Amino acid sequence: MSVISYQKLSKGELTQLLDIAREAIRGHLSNGEIKAPQLDLYSKKLLEPAACFVTLEVNGELQGCLGTIAAHSPLVLEVHNKARASAYQDHRFMPLTKDQLDKLTIEVSVLSEPERLEVNSEQELLDYLADNKVGVILTKNHKQALFLPQVWEKLPKPIDFIRQLKVKAGWNAAYWSADMVVSTFTVSSIKGKYF
């Protein structure tokens, strides 16, 4: 499946994606029927398969973040599904409540296709990241972890960024293996308040 060229998404298209995420959360909380986006309302670009993440914060603290690195379905449906999952199915957090909505911010990130980065050591990776604040995926055997580029705001030093990413995957912070697969990506994102 082809992945949309996220750079070509306009601010208007990103705003539509943010609105889809809001509606997915609103529909779940209303106890009504949760309706998927009506596909004929969107441009061809937003109907192409794309990978995305939806991140939720309440009072600036993470409340949920789920997504995919592989494009499986139209972007509008991915955003809808990931918004609901981030709000109610991220097992790290209690499900979102109505009381949290006035302090809720939603961020939708559309990912570029990940590209493998050939590095011979962890130090080579750290040197690369000193000049390239990109999203990173570490993979070895059946373990994998991903940080969006936005994580650089909280972990600005490459060594801290990579150590925390390794811990997220279930490795020791000091762990490194010669057969670690490193992939990088960029995002096009939009962030806004729920209300």
From TrEMBL:
- What Pfam families does the entry give? AMMECR1 (PF01871)
Name listed for the protein in its UniProt record: AmmeMemoRadiSam system protein A
The gene that this protein is the product of is amrA
* Coiled coil (UniProt feature): none
Q: Which Gene3D superfamilies match?
A: Hypothetical protein ph0010, domain 1, Hypothetical protein ph0010, domain 2
**Taxon lineage:** Bacteria, Pseudomonadati, Pseudomonadota, Gammaproteobacteria, Vibrionales
Read off the NCBIfam families from this record: AmmeMemoSam_A
Residue ranges of domain AMMECR1 in the record: 12-195
